[in-house]
User: What shape does this take?
Amino acid sequence: MSVWDEVVGQGPAVRVLTRAALAARRGTTGMTHAWLLTGPPGSGRSTAARAFAAALACEDPAEVGCGRCPGCRTAVAGSHADVTVFSTEHMQIRREDVEPLIATAQRRPSVARWRVIVVEDADRLNQTSGNVLLKTIEEPPAQTVWLLCAPAVDDVLPTIRSRARHVPLRVPPADAVAELLVRRDGIDPVMAAFAARAAQSHVGLARRLARDEGARIRRREVLRLPQRVRGVGDAVVAAGELVEVAAEEAGASTTERDARERAELLRALGADGSATVPPAVRAQVRQLEEDQKRRARRHQTDVLDRALVDLLGLLRDVLVLQLGAPVELVNGDMTTDVRAMAAASTAEDTLRRADAVQLARERLAQNVAPLLAIEALALSLRPPGRDE
Assistant: This one.
C-alpha cells in the first residue's frame, strides 16, 4: 500500500509532491526547502504532508513512497529519526514551541537523505514565533525540508508564505471518502456514504460518524438548533446546552491524559508518593495544569467550530432548495427538516444566518468566550420578526 493511498482526491497535489520526491532522490534539481500545503478542513493537509515526508524517507529504489520499507513505515507512524511532526494544542504556536524545532532543523539527518519537519496548523504562528521561524526558512540547512500546513495561503504570515512553495489541496469527493472508509476500515457502504456526505468529505470526521452513534446523535441535535430557537429564552438555553456538550466532550477526551501527565511529572520529580504536592515542585505542577487548561480550551473550541461547520452545511442545503440549485444535499437524511426551513424563510434570511455562523467561528478563533459567541449566534438564528 503506497503512502499516497490515503491522500484522497488530491491527484494534482500528489503528482507535484511525487515528482519533487523523485527529483530529490535522483539529485536532478535543487530541493525546495519550504513547502506550504493549504486546503479547507477535510482536504487532508496533514495526511499529504506525512505522505510527502515518508516519500522523502523512502528506501525502495523502484518506488517513491512505497509504504512497505522501514523508512515509509516509521515516517507514517511518527517514529522516524529524521521526521518531526509538530502540532499545537494551544490557540497559538508560541516562541518556546518553535525554538526546539529550529534546533532540530540544524542537525544533519541520521538515517535518511533529508531531515523533514512538518508543522501542522502553521496558521497559528503568531508574529513572534513566525519571525523566529522565518530566519531558518530564509537560510535553511542544506538537508532540511519544512512542510507547513494551513487552511489558506492568507492564514500564514506573508513573510513566511513568500518563501515557501505553495501546493493547494481541495475537498475530496464524498464517494472517494466513502470508498476509503469501506476499503480501509471495513465500514458498511451505506453508512460510509452517509458519513462521507455528513462530514462534508472530512475523512477523520466521516470515520468517527460512521463508527460512533453518539457522534451522530450530537450532530443531529446541533442541526436542529435553528428550529428550536423561537425566541430569546430558547436561544440562551440552546447556546448553554451546546457549549456544555462541547466542554463535556473536551473533558472526556483529556481527563485520562491529564491524570497520566500529572503522574508522570510527579514521578520524574520524585514526588509521586506524596499525599500533597511538595512546595519544591508546585511551580512545575502549576505550569502543567495551565497547559492542560489551554489544551482543554482549544479542544472545546475545535468541537464548537466543527458543530458550526455542520450548521453551515445545513444552511447551505436550505439555500440550495430556496434557489432551486441542481446539486445534492449534504444532509440528505434531513430532507424533511431542510424543506420546512426553506419554506419558512427566504434566501436572504438563510444568508444572514450563515453570516452569523461564520462570525461566531471568527469570534471563537479570536478567543471570545465560547458561551458569549454561541449565545450571540443563537439569537441571530431566530425566525425573522421574532425579537421577543
Notes: The first strand starts at residue 34 and ends at 38. Residues 35 and 165 are 5 Å apart (CA to CA). The two ends are 59 Å apart (CA to CA).
